[in-house]
Amino acid sequence: MLGWLETCRRLYNRCLRDLKTWLNSRKCPIDRCSLNEEYIVPADLPFPSYLQQKRQLTQWKKENPWLKAAHSQVTQDVVKRMHNTWEAFKKRGFGFPRFKKYGQFRSFLFPQFKNHPLQLPSWEGMGVGDYQIKLPKIGSVLIELHRPIPDGFVIKQIRVLSRARGTKWYVVITVQSDIEVPNPLPKGRGLAADVGLENFLTTSDNFTVKPGLFFRELQSRLKELQRKASRKKKGSKNWEKAQIKVAKLHHKIANSRKNFHFQVAHQLCDQGDMVFVEDIDFRVSAKGFLGKSMLDGGFGQFRTILQWVCWKRDKFFAQVDHKYSSQICPNCGTHTGKKPLSQRQHICPECNYQTTRDHAAAEVLLQRGLDKVRTDCAERKLPGNGGLSGPVADWLDKCRSRNTQERS
Ligand SMILES: [Zn+2]
């Protein structure tokens, strides 16, 4: 499987090389020479599109037998992957596909399956969760099945992932069914969550979650391992061993963090029926003065997980405008001006409302979230509002009665 990854990586770079050369060759006018570098590409050479390169792949395979090592659909998907990145770059304007260095290509995909690839192991004495997965051209691999494939689902594709420098392997099985699951509708009790550094999270009910303790402990262990690894001679056997140790710990930290995020997301879903969070782009704030500690929290990942957990548990999820959320008094709506980050209390000069800074921000977010739901329901952007209760429903009733009065 490591060999396949290396084959895929080289193919990916080859495709990208052709794309880049073509682009560079078209950069200067046809009757002139470039001052930097000349790319000799025939004028009528078509753009190396996905289809074009997919066709070329057959030719390449004849010239380079090493390409045949991997399954043909897997190699086709590599070409597609490069072009997906390229298309995404064209759309967003950033993130030009990059050459992958050794070890940077960490997964390959089997895009389709005819037969059910999972089977019970053919020999006895295996544990309960143990299964075999039959991968084309690789053969049967023993796996630990984390959850059974539900009935009525078809296996669409399988991605094989390598983690921690190829010492840990995962298979991600994508299943599909034609059952339609409706998106959760706004209903019931709402709550908003404000994420921060001192407390991982504060809700509008003043429920707080401390940042995961596991993290600091693992972090100091990571520092120690990194120090040890840096003393080894680069490229030596001991160096590789030390690198694997570091990679494994990184992997563990990422898993613990994810687990923590899932737990917090479920806690929030236990407490309310609508969850609102701020729409801040955490990648941007991570560049600012809070720096890396912002990324350590993985707030962006948390929001994605929260959205997924909400959907799964039929809770309404929405992102609301984050601007000035920490500068407005949730009690009277006064703009209290910018608070320095060291000021952890909110004390309103107008109405004397006192609470913690994060709680006040969460309350503001909740008000904005409910406002958003109201307007969206009134404008019928959200289908139906039958299940509404509490302030949203009251407000809608008021709206409706006002409308009828006006009409009459
Ligand atoms: Zn106030």
In short:
The protein has 408 residues and is an alpha+beta fold.
What descriptive keywords fit this protein?
408 residues; 10 helices; 3-stranded antiparallel beta sheet; 3 domains; binds zinc ion; alpha+beta
Q: What would you note in describing this structure?
A:
The chain has 408 residues and is of the alpha+beta class. It folds into three domains: 2-104, no CATH class; 110-176, no CATH class; 190-386, no CATH class. The chain has helices spanning 2-25, 50-63, 72-92, 214-231, 237-271, 282-287, 292-297, 299-312, 357-378, 391-407, and strands spanning 107-110, 118-119, 130-135, 139-144, 154-163, 168-176, 190-195, 201-203, 208-209, 274-278, 316-320, 345-347, 354-356. The strands form four sheets. A five-stranded mixed β-sheet has the order 9-8-7-10-11, with helices on both faces. Strands 1-5-6 form a three-stranded antiparallel β-sheet. A three-stranded antiparallel β-sheet has the order 2-3-4, with no helix packed on it. Helix 2 packs antiparallel against helix 3 (72-92) and helix 9 (357-378) packs parallel to helix 10 (391-407). The chain is globular. It starts with a helix and ends with a helix. Residues 384-389 have low confidence and may be disordered. The structure holds zinc ion (ZN). Zinc ion binds next to loops.
